[in-house]
Amino acid sequence: MRPAHLALAVLVAAVWGVNFTVIEIGLDHFPPLLFSALRFLAVALPAVFLVGRPKVAFRWIVAVGLVLGVAKFGLLFIGMDQGMPAGLSSLVLQIQAVFTAGIAALALGERPSRTRLLGMAVALAGIAVAAVDEGASGPLGAFALVVAAAACWGASNVLTRRAAPPDALNFMVWVSTVPVLPLLALSLLTEGPSRDLAALRALDWQGAGTVLYVAWITTVFGFGAWGWLLRRHPASTVAPFSLLVPVFGMSSAFLFLGEPVSPLRWCAAALLVGGVALTSLPPRRGRTAGPLPSTGSAGGADRTPGAVPARTGRP
Predict the structure, then answer these.
(1) pLDDT of residue 94
(2) 290 in Cβ contact with 310 (< 8 Å)
(3) pLDDT digit string, tens, across residues 218-246
(4) pLDDT above 50 for 311
(5) Where are the extended beta strands (E) located within 220-293?
């Protein structure tokens, strides 16, 4: 990989990692479901008019839009709004690789290798350590919501595998059109129209900047650059850079939000990243199917390892 391409891969990981800190700042300006709806609205318009017609059946766009956009991002934003730290959220979401492998084994009959099973066990140990750390200092309910968000991400990965979109950016932009109305409806029902209107009336440059970052920088630039790299390099070369996402996520949360990183959290990070790295290793030829694709951005989102298809690869 050329130095410029190497720098671009690191930059995308940094963008996706810092995304969690930006989400935390945005939640000071918007209720979580409204913030998530605005994020997808900003992605969909005007990008949907620039990427061309959908390249997969619309049923797959709707399915991924509901599971990834409404369920995964809704749970993530609510969890963070209820006290889940940004840095820890960027780490815990890595468990989506384990959920992806497990759901694929049940739904697609993909038998995981022994190495992948070992990686899943190590990553789950990391989640247990992170839960102990969070239980000592923060709300376990918010922690559980982010784990549930990771499970929804895993389900959306399997749906994306079935959809097999040839263009990752085109697919994500069209997927982003689906969650806007459901999220707005849920926001009105649960967060209330008065709270939503108050947030929109108080919109300032910082609030607008968080929406633009999570929409255009994280999704449009992030997915565009990642797809560009995957078209020029093997997926096995590009995918490991996504392991840097929680590193940037935890570091940016420490620098900009003052979030402490305890020894237990470092231990959880080592177990989770190591386990996900094992889960992401390509299987021996002829034994198992290739790793599944991952959609979303980090926090969209939000890209994590263990999620690159065997041929084309996509974040």
Answers:
(1) 86
(2) yes
(3) 988 998 898 888 888 877 678 778 888 98
(4) no
(5) none
Instruction: Look at residues 61, 289, 85 and name the one whose alpha carbon lies nearest to residue 160.
Output: 61
Under DSSP, the state recorded for 194 is H
Give yes or no for residue 134 having a pLDDT over 80.
no
Query: DSSP secondary structure string, 20-77?
Result: HHHHHHHTTTS-HHHHHHHHHHHHHHHHTTTS-S-SS-HHHHHHHIIIIIIIIHHHHH
User: For 286, phi and psi rounded to 5 degrees?
Assistant: 90, 0
List, for residues 43-89, the tens digit of each pLDDT value.
998 899 999 999 999 999 999 999 999 999 999 999 999 999 999 99
DSSP state letter for 220: I
CA terminus-to-terminus distance, the chain: 18
Q: Residue 267: count other Cβ atoms within 10 Å of its Cβ.
A: 16
The reported pTM is: 0.86
Residues 6+ apart with CB under 8 A from 29: 35, 199, 202, 203, 204, 206, 207, 210
With beta carbons less than 8 A apart as the criterion, state whether 183 and 31 touch: no
Q: At what angle do helices 168-175 and 222-232 cross, to 10 degrees?
A: 160
142 in Cβ contact with 83 (< 8 Å) = yes
- Cβ neighbours of residue 315 under 8 Å, at least 6 residues apart? 12, 168, 222, 223, 226, 227, 230, 242, 294, 295, 297, 303, 307, 308
Q: Mean pLDDT across the stretch 25-33?
A: 98
Stronger pLDDT, 275 or 133, i.e. the higher one: 275
**35 Cβ neighbours under 8 A, 6+ residues apart:** 23, 26, 27, 29, 77, 210, 211
Separation CA 195–CA 201 (nearest Å): 10
